[in-house]
Design brief:
The complex is a heterodimer of chains A (623) and B (105).
Chain A (H helix, E strand, L loop, with lengths): L9 H5 L3 E4 L11 H12 L4 E4 L1 H9 L1 H8 L6 H11 L9 H5 L13 H22 L8 E5 L5 H14 L4 E5 L5 H10 L5 E3 L6 H11 L9 E5 L2 E4 L18 H9 L9 E3 L2 E2 L22 E2 L2 H15 L3 E4 L8 H4 L1 H7 L4 E6 L5 H9 L2 E6 L6 H7 L5 H13 L3 E2 L2 E4 L6 H10 L11 E4 L2 E2 L3 H4 L6 E6 L13 H4 L2 E6 L9 H14 L6 E7 L2 E7 L6 E6 H9 L5 E2 H8 L5 H13 L3 E4 L2 E4 L2 E2 L5
Chain B lengths: L7 H13 L4 H21 L12 H5 L2 E3 L3 H8 L27
The chains are: A alpha/beta (623), B mainly alpha (105).
Chain lengths: 623, 105
């Protein structure tokens, strides 16, 4: 029993059955780790807790493909807008669907057999009410005392819509809201302004949720529970959150049983699910240098990780329980200790998992090999740019050459990379982007970014919270918020995404060449013949096979010192002076620099200040 | 032409000496024309970049490339299995990865 388990008498706990709900637009292709964990925690404390992945019902109703499109976060709150009428009734701000006109140019991707406007209106007017009716009628709400809603990104209004109906049908039901949408002042404002919210858990819920259940079960005062807020008249009473939970090993494994049951009953495919697991919270890099654009970990940046032994045991247990080998870490950043204590053990044990992780981009070749051998097949590193100058402006703590090197060895070891190029940082210059556009064709054999676009302004990020460092001409909540929330909600306080204009910014044309180059990169990567740049070597001989561009394909052959210089730059970015020291102390550094430049002119090397990095990969695999 | 070297001081000295010569306007015009012509010719024979250090390995790079489709490239790109990630036919990626979203860390 953990420290937070000191709650109430067991008999009373059984009298407080609860259900935790995940509403649209939580992704349909995986269970909610928030629900799975809250159920396991509640159960561990003796409360009968169920989970309801109600998002699946909506996906089944409107079609999974359409649902997936709506669940994508593309900048406009279309998902929240669809449920706003049901959530706020007559107070909803956009009965005439002005949002669909205002952003018509951006919503074409939501068109099906009809245009996007007709389809979305039909969804709002018909599918949403029918879905909510079925949900209220189809679950034994009379058997529960408390309904918890986990809300992240576009889950607010769908959750409010269900809570509103449940309150009407079952006035004694207690509603509790939590999740990232209720972090910081956003949660306090939603408690103040949305009637159907009885309580909110602001911050992590591992302790607050069972303590709230216990207090409700015994009739004790809830106002002293850290992280819990409620409305009293026109005021909000909130107890500051406890320090972030550190004993992650004590947390139970998430319980996903009801997700799979519900998916099966709705006829939704669940065989390809990547099972979410949590091995760490917070961000060890962000705790030291908060990346300027990142709004994650609002109040819980402190890094905490499960022990490797605990992660191993959880993966084994979850694989057996849910008959899957695919695991998606929800961590914001990989715990460095796992490179020595977790992945080598997975490799040694011969466990054949497929694992996804988010990582910092400064991984070496050896570390990527460890990850690959341990079963990591997908990574999301925070690459963000191919310019060291722009990366410095972001406080990323890596250089462009390290980013490129990660792309290289990830390809070599068969790890898929999800990444983006971002722009729009104070202090950047047009030359920063011209240089990136120029180098992109040389990287055609590496995985391209999913997108290249202006950085979003997120609440809690330094760009948002440090106007002294990042002065702005204007800042306002992203313009679809007023189409979703009534005027009684202070959207300045509940918005997560903001429109902005920096005092110092480049014209959009400065990014055109890079955007075009990235589009071409993506096209080439998606073609039948994937671009390649490989080499074979023997002492004194190097041959590079260049198949990056069909019209310029061919081989380069180098001998002696030139071959040695290139091969010295294969593993990692390295200075000319270091190459000289490694291969021939009598070699002039200038000669190495000349070689760097001429390799780079041919697109065979990436130069980053004083660093040189060979771009070709070994033809022999897996070393 | 036999190569010779002359520094800026000697050139300045030559210019001073020539200017001290007592010449008619026509003779002065011819002399200036000759000097300009000689300078132009010298520039053509010794372009500006000759004053810079020659780059190392220029000849090695000049002959390094053999155009044509390398058979090994094709072999590498089309080989079945192995560790290289291909864009087409990939396994499903986790839904919240940057592949589908602009939410980055």
């Amino acid at each position: 029993m953990t420290a937070f388990a000191e709650v109430s008498a067991p008999a009373r706990r059984m009298d407080w059955p609860a259900v935790v709900v995940s509403m649209p637009f939580m992704h349909v292709d995986r269970p909610s780790i928030q629900l799975g964990l809250l159920k396991a925690i509640g159960t561990a404390h003796g409360f009968p807790v169920r989970t309801l992945h109600a998002n699946l019902d909506f996906a089944a109703r409107i079609g999974v493909d359409y649902y997936r499109l709506l669940a994508e976060q593309r900048g406009r709150l279309v998902g929240d807008w669809l449920f706003a009428m049901a959530a706020f009734g007559d107070a909803a701000p956009d009965p005439d669907a002005r949002l669909l006109d205002e952003f018509a140019d951006e919503l074409g991707y939501l068109a099906g057999t009809r245009d996007a406007r007709d389809r979305l209106l039909d969804t709002r007017e018909h599918d949403v009410p029918a879905y909510l009716d079925a949900l209220v009628a189809g679950f034994p709400w009379q058997d529960v005392r408390l309904v918890g809603f986990s809300s992240t990104f576009q889950q607010n209004t769908a959750s409010f819509a269900l809570a509103r109906r449940l309150k009407r049908e079952y006035p004694d039901l207690v509603t509790v809201f939590g999740g990232a949408n209720f972090d910081g002042e956003m949660g306090l404002e939603l408690v103040r302004s949305v009637d159907c919210v009885d309580y909110a858990v602001v911050g992590e819920g591992d302790s607050a949720f069972p303590r709230l259940l216990a207090a409700l079960a015994t009739g004790e005062d809830t106002d002293a529970i850290p992280g819990v807020a409620r409305r009293v008249g026109v005021r909000v009473v909130a107890c500051p959150p406890a320090p972030p939970h550190t004993a992650l090993d004590d947390l139970p494994a998430p319980d996903y049983e009801e997700y799979f049951d519900r998916a099966a009953s709705l006829g939704l495919p669940a065989e390809e699910v990547w099972l979410p697991f949590e091995s760490a919270r917070g961000c060890w890099w962000g705790a030291k240098h908060h990346c300027t654009f990142c709004g994650l970990n609002a109040t819980t940046m402190r890094f905490r990780a499960k022990s490797a032994q605990r992660v191993l045991a959880e993966l084994e247990g979850q694989a057996r329980r849910y008959r899957t080998f695919r695991f998606e870490a929800v961590d914001n950043i990989l715990a460095p200790a796992y490179l020595k204590e977790l992945f080598p053990v997975l490799a040694e044990n011969g466990q054949d998992y497929e694992i996804f992780y988010e990582v910092k981009a400064n991984l070496s070749r050896a570390q990527l090999r460890v990850l690959a051998h341990g079963g990591v097949t997908q990574l999301q590193p925070g690459l963000e740019s191919l310019s060291s100058r722009v990366l410095r402006l972001m406080d990323k703590g890596v250089r462009a050459a390290q980013n490129v090197n990660l792309l290289r060895w990830a390809r070599y070891y068969g790890i898929a990379i999800g990444w983006n190029i971002l722009w729009g940082f104070p202090g950047e210059t047009a030359e920063d982007y011209a240089a990136q556009a120029a180098v992109v064709p040389h990287l055609a054999h590496l995985q391209p970014p999913a997108s290249a676009d202006r950085v979003w302004l997120e609440r809690f990020s330094p760009l948002f919270s440090r106007p002294d460092r990042f002065p702005m001409r204007s800042r306002r909540p992203e313009p679809s918020y007023p189409h979703v929330y009534p005027s009684t909600v202070d959207i300045e306080r509940i918005a997560y995404f903001f429109d902005y204009e920096l005092t110092e910014s480049l014209p959009v044309q400065a990014y055109s060449a890079l955007r075009t180059a990235v589009d071409e990169w993506k096209r080439a990567w998606a073609s039948d013949t994937v671009p390649v740049l490989t080499y074979r070597s023997s002492p004194g001989l190097l041959r590079i096979y260049d198949g990056r561009h069909a019209d310029r394909a061919g081989t380069y052959t180098f001998h002696g010192t030139l071959a040695a210089i290139y091969l010295a730059c294969v593993d990692r970015p390295i200075t000319a002076a270091a190459v000289r020291a490694a291969i021939d102390p009598d070699l002039p550094v200038e000669a190495v620099r000349d070689a760097y430049e001429q390799f780079a002119e041919r697109g065979l090397m990436f130069l980053d200040g004083d660093l040189g990095l060979a771009l070709a990969l070994p033809a022999t695999r897996g070393r | 032409m036999e190569e010779f070297a002359i520094d800026q001081n000697e050139l300045d000295d030559l210019k001073t000496r020539l200017e001290t010569l007592q010449l008619s306007p026509a003779q002065r015009k011819v002399l200036n024309g000759m000097i300009r012509l000689a300078g132009d010719l010298a520039d053509g024979e010794h372009p500006d970049e000759e004053s810079e250090e020659p780059r190392a390995y220029t000849e090695d790079f000049a002959g390094a490339f053999t155009p044509s489709q390398a058979s090994l490239v094709v072999e590498y790109a089309t080989a079945a299995g192995g560790g290289v990630y291909h864009a087409t036919g990939t396994a499903a990626h986790p839904p919240h990865s940057a592949v589908t979203a602009m939410i980055t860390r």
